[in-house]
Amino acid sequence: MAPTSRAALHPCVAHRGWSGGAPENTLAAFRLALSEPSVYWIELDVHLSKDEVPVVIHDGTLNRTTNGKGKVSERTALQLSQLDAGSWFHPIYAGEPIPTLAQVMSLVYGRACLNIELKEDAQEGGLLVRRVVELVRAYRMESAVVITSFDRRLIEQAKKQAPEFRTGLITDKKPKDLIPQLQSLGASVLSIDYRLVTPKLLAETATASIGVMAWTVNQPGDLARLASMPEPFQICTNYPDRWLAAVAKG
Question: Which residues are paired to 166 by β-bridges?
Answer without folding.
Answer: 146
